[in-house]
Every structure is written in C-alpha cells, then in structure tokens.
Amino acid sequence: MSQRGRDTEFELTDVTAVFEERDDHAEPLTASGVAEELGCSRRTALNKLHELAARTELTSKKVGGRSRVWWIPIHA
C-alpha cells in the first residue's frame, strides 16, 4: 500500500469499502473508526460520511451528546 498523507485524495468508494470489508456488518462505525481504517483525518472521514449519507448510501444516528455512528442501510 502506498504511503498516505495530507495530499492523499480519498474516494467515496474507499469509505464504503471500510464498511463492506468488515466481518461484522451489523456493527456501526464512528467517523474516528473510519478515519483510523483509512489513515486520514477524522474531518476527512466525516466529510465523506456526510456525502455518502446525502446520497442515501449510508445512514447515521446520533448517540450521546456529540457522537454519531454510521452504517450501510438495508433497503427492503
């Protein structure tokens, strides 16, 4: 894997891959968890998560005062 740094561009597919490649698809993730997996800042991960939610590819829920968790919704 190449060295990721400040100039690295992250695609939306990079973020969805974090969710899809996990063993437990039922467990939601935080922006910090996604950032850790990608090797990017929490702000970068949060921006991508919000963009995916706007496209209805992810759903989120506020948990606690300032925390939010994210997951891929199951559409019936």
Q: Helix tally? A: 3
CATH topology term: Arc Repressor Mutant, subunit A
- Global structural class: alpha+beta
According to CATH, the homologous superfamily is: Winged helix-like DNA-binding domain superfamily/Winged helix DNA-binding domain
Secondary structure: helix percent? 25-40%
- Which strand-content bin applies to the residues? 5-15%
Number of strands: 2
CATH class: Mainly Alpha
Low-confidence stretches: none
Topology, element by element:
Elements: H1 12-20, H2 31-38, H3 42-54, E1 59-62, E2 68-71
Antiparallel strand pairs: 1-2
Helix pairs in contact: 2-3
Considering the chains and any ligands shown, give keywords for the structure.
single chain; 76 residues; alpha+beta; Arc Repressor Mutant, subunit A; two-stranded antiparallel ribbon
Describe this structure as you would to a colleague.
The chain is α+β, with helices and mostly antiparallel strands and 76 residues long. It has a single domain (12-71), classed as Winged helix-like DNA-binding domain superfamily/Winged helix DNA-binding domain (Arc Repressor Mutant, subunit A), CATH 1.10.10. Helices cover 39% and strands 11% of the residues. The protein has helices spanning 12-20, 31-38, 42-54, and strands spanning 59-62, 68-71. The model has no long low-confidence stretch (mean pLDDT 88).
Condensed summary:
The protein has 76 residues and is an alpha+beta fold. It has helices spanning 12-20, 31-38, 42-54; strands spanning 59-62, 68-71.
